[in-house]
Write a structure and sequence with these properties.
The complex is a heterodimer of chains A (about 450) and B (about 170).
Chain A (H helix, E strand, L loop, with lengths): L10 E4 L4 E5 L1 H4 L1 H12 L4 E5 L8 E7 L2 E7 L5 E5 L14 E3 L2 E3 L6 E3 L4 E3 L22 E5 L2 E5 L8 H17 L7 E3 L4 E5 L3 H7 L6 H4 L1 H11 L7 H6 L6 E5 L4 E5 L15 H19 L1 H9 L1 E6 L3 E5 L3 E10 L2 E11 L4 H14 L7 H17 L4 E3 L12 E4 L5 H14 L8
Antiparallel strand pairs in A: 1-2, 2-21, 3-12, 4-5, 4-7, 5-6, 8-9, 9-10, 11-12, 13-20, 14-20, 15-16, 15-22, 16-17, 17-18, 18-19, 19-20
Helix pairs in contact in A: 8-9
Chain B lengths: L8 H16 L3 H5 L2 E9 L19 E4 H11 L12 E15 L2 E13 L7 E14 L2 E11 L15
Parallel strand pairs in B: 1-6
Antiparallel strand pairs in B: 1-2, 3-4, 4-5, 5-6
Classes of the chains: A alpha+beta (about 450), B alpha+beta (about 170).
Chain lengths: ~450, ~170
């Protein structure tokens, strides 16, 4: 049975009067949330894991995606697959480890054994079943459709009906992912060990918005910017307040199609790939200069500068954040109810990067991001507060009007970095999907 | 190497309880002065498989502060614009099972368990952080100082806690 789409739009937009508003039921209604699960999370490409998390045959990672418990598996034959972690017999999980390497997954309940492709190999009994009981494969673990781009594996619960990941991501997102891959001379970005796993009592879209919001940087992260400025004291290389007061001079907030968006901006944190700052010392400078020279030769000056210097906060619709900022990070936002979410994050680095720059990358990450950083907890606090207020206040609409552009399709538009143009693109797509106008199907 | 500089369990306990009291009272300017110039304050990630030997230069931690960020953390949390801890939450640091587990070259290794309780304004529930500490303590003149403090959480995630802006 098809899920009923939203009959009425929850977006109120008037480009002549220059406003873009979101009805706050989109952030708090359990009914809207259930529809989102059906219409968005069951149809979009959702991040599952990274190629380098399961490098060897037999490697696996168990992960929750949109409420499903999946095994992300490197098979003994060398393929990458994903299947459900639930025995086809009586439903128990076939894998109780979070990650590992194995030849088979054996159900602990009645001993059914599945190979690394999810095929049923043994029912742990000699009697009671007909020999051809699984000839049609219905007792194999059900697989989920996955596709990969730039080492990132995505899953789609709409099976063969869904458009390809390639088309879903579109040219701009793929271009940014390519640019990130180029940090590595062999295009080999790896996930470093260690995961952040935390939560915020707020609707997941509040963190989606916050993850690439240039407007909030000054007010929310003042204490972080002050900490940066103190570190730079005595260095002529960085003037935090000067750069921030000129924040809108460079970059933009871009809606780049299909609901995806990116904030490209200039924040003086330093970037291990190619933007050196004095506290990192001369060895780091040498390596960064070599990377810049390599990239200029490979892709030309402009693209080198984009890869090395531009801060990129990218949202892949509906709930993946790739932040290539002071570190390169993958952040998934798993909605658990209309008003709660789980957040997981990892650090990406070029395989060839020196131990020194990797350590700077990790140090940058934890300095600002994560549940104990100098930035993320303040964001979390904003979102907790917003959710409580949204639940309780009479204000019906959220005002997301800043930098509304006069274009036909708001899903492709650019505004100043401290605007909300890019988020308007996300919400436009959200609205079209929720009303069944955009099906994300072939 | 003589053991004359070794810190006794009684001294270590007294010192750790003092640290806990400073944190409970949000006297963070005094707290940060417990840390030696080349010190570290660290908390490993909740999925870390080898939390005692893990290296923050190679793996993502939750906290990996050297002295400049220990100072920065103390300074930041006391500012009214540190939104995650505004107004300051109520915290109780229970440090227990303190044991001296080694002494080498002027550094005394101390192990302790912890339970840190937080009642903040952002969540209705009281949150709990529990685990073990691994300290390296040194003497500086008459005073004891922290060379390193590594917290290892008995948690598989911070899903129940949300965030961890407070100091353990």
């Amino acid at each position: 049975m098809d899920t009923q789409t939203l009959a009425k739009s929850l977006i109120d937009v008037d480009q002549k009067k220059k406003y873009f508003r979101i009805h706050r039921s989109a952030y708090k209604s359990e009914e809207v949330f259930q529809k989102e699960m059906e219409l968005i999370f069951n149809k979009c490409w959702l991040y599952l894991g990274h190629r380098t998390e399961i490098p060897n045959k037999g490697d696996f990672v168990v992960r929750n995606v949109a409420g499903r418990n999946l095994i992300f598996q490197h098979t003994r034959k060398g393929e990458i697959v994903a299947f459900y972690n639930a025995c086809t017999h009586r439903g128990a999980a076939v894998c109780w480890d979070k990650k590992g390497n194995t030849k088979v997954h054996s159900c602990r309940y009645h001993g059914w054994v599945f190979d690394t492709e999810g095929k049923l190999k043994s029912m742990n009994t000699e009697s009671g079943y007909s020999d051809d009981i699984n000839d049609d494969g219905h007792l194999d673990l059900p697989t989920a459709r996955i596709e990969e781009y730039a080492g990132l594996y995505f899953v789609n619960f709409n099976g063969d009906k869904a458009i390809s990941l390639h088309d879903y991501l579109g040219d701009y997102v793929r271009g940014v992912l390519d640019a990130i891959q180029l940090q590595s001379p062999s295009r080999d970005m790896v996930i470093l060990p260690g995961e952040h796993a935390y939560s915020i009592n707020a609707n997941y879209k509040l963190l989606v918005e916050n993850s690439a919001d240039g407007y909030h940087l000054g007010p929310v992260h003042q204490t972080y910017l002050e900490f940066l400025q103190e570190r730079y004291e005595g260095s002529k290389d960085a003037d935090v307040h000067g750069t921030m007061s000129n924040y809108t001079a460079k970059g933009g907030a871009k809606a780049v199609g299909n609901g995806h968006y990116i904030l490209e901006s200039n924040v003086p944190t330093g970037r291990p790939v190619g933007y050196w700052i004095a506290p990192w010392g001369p060895e780091a400078k040498k390596e960064i200069e070599a990377t810049r020279a390599r990239l200029e030769k490979e892709v030309g000056f402009d693209q080198m500068e984009y890869i090395c210097e531009m801060q990129k906060n990218m949202v892949i619709f509906p709930n993946l954040v790739i932040n290539d900022i002071l570190a390169t990070t993958i952040r998934t936002i798993e909605p658990t109810s209309a008003g709660t979410m789980k957040v997981n994050a990892w650090c990406l680095a070029p395989r060839e990067e020196s131990d020194l720059l990797k350590s700077i990358r990790l140090d940058n990450f934890v300095s600002f991001l994560g549940p104990a950083g100098f930035g993320s907890p303040d964001d979390g606090s904003m979102l907790n507060s917003a959710q409580r207020a949204i639940n309780a206040a009479p204000t019906e609409w959220t005002e997301l009007s800043k930098e509304l552009q006069d274009v036909d399709d708001l899903r492709v538009a650019t505004g100043l970095p401290d605007g909300e143009t890019h988020m308007q693109g996300y919400w436009t797509q959200w609205d079209l999907v929720m009303r069944g106008i955009e099906t994300l199907e072939k | 190497m003589s053991n004359s500089g070794a810190i006794s369990r009684a001294e270590a306990e007294e010192f750790l309880y003092h640290e806990a009291e400073l944190l409970d009272d949000w006297r963070l300017q005094e707290w940060k002065d417990l840390y030696a110039d080349d010190s570290r304050y660290e908390v490993t990630s909740t999925d870390c498989e080898d939390p005692l030997s893990a290296d923050p230069a190679k793996a993502l931690f939750l906290v990996a502060d050297k002295k400049d960020r220990i100072d920065g953390r103390a300074n930041r949390l006391l500012k009214s614009k540190a939104h995650a801890e505004y107004p300051l939450s109520k915290v109780r640091h229970l440090y227990t099972n303190v044991r001296v587990v080694g002494h080498e070259e002027g550094v005394t290794k101390v192990r302790a368990n912890f339970l840190v309780l937080r009642s903040g304004y952002d969540r209705e529930q009281t949150t709990q952080y529990m685990g073990e500490f691994h300290y390296s303590l040194i003497r500086e003149g008459d005073a004891i100082r922290i060379r390193s403090k590594r917290g290892v959480l008995d948690l598989n995630s911070l899903y129940n806690q949300g965030q961890m802006a407070i100091i353990l």
